[in-house]
Specification:
about 25% strand, elongated, 7 helices
Length: about 325
Amino acid sequence: MPEKKVDVVIVGAGPAGLTAGIYASRLGLETVILEEKTIGGQVVENPLIENYPGFTEISGTELIERMKNQAEKYGVKINVFEPVKEIKLERQRKIVVTDSSHYSCRLLLICTGAKHRELGVNGEKKFFGRGVSYCPVCDGPLFRERKVAVVGGGESAATAAIYLKSIASQVYLIHRRNRLRAEKALRERILKSNVKILWNSVVSSINGDRAVREIVVRNLKTSEEKKVEVDGIFILVGTKPRSELARKTGIKTDEKGYIVVDRNQRTNIEGIYAAGDVTGEPAQITKAVGEATVAILDGYNTVLGGPYGFEGN
């Protein structure tokens, strides 16, 4: 297996990984980003972003495309569909193993993000791809002029409900509490929309034949259950960190699985940093961007020798 020596390896091509790549390359560091899927992570699933500085509104897809183009402009190599299988620790260097290559570096940044949480109810797995979805941007257009439900009460769920209302004939928003957790601006917009909110409620099961036909919704205060006819259900109830690779490497995680970092984004292993959703909540693009910036600048100064560059094996 060929070994490629680079200055920096970044695992994950979401906002944190792309930001880290931009900063590292501008510092003159040879940088490669390894991504097991496509560029962007969960951000590309967001139809509308209104709280990223500099943009009154922008889609997740466009924001990521701009970040990607900027990273590549400065020479970052982005390898998609190249999952990391293992990280080996050899003295000062880290060997990042994929199916096609071994990458040797002194500075490693983990930006593996998070994945969707599931409801864990009957029918969720059975009807995945046949009415059950975790991505409103990907699958929303399939439900034009049809009835859909969104489960959740945070920003992702509120944004999805507003977006889907422009496509579907009826949108239900199902939230287990009596108040949305989304920011005030989104709460006000959704309360003024024609989205029907089912407060203090959870989904008990997802039913259908070859596709979703209805969901059973239970009121947590009264225990009453009722059937709601829908053609699709979008589940947006939070995320859990993709930290399996980190744990296998010996990187410390907390009880929820998030990578433990200090104020400079350092992990417990020298030369390995982490940034973005994999380090904990809140799951915000600006948080990921800020953490990635801190990580690369600190790593450059403390691991790679700062403005004087470095030499080493």
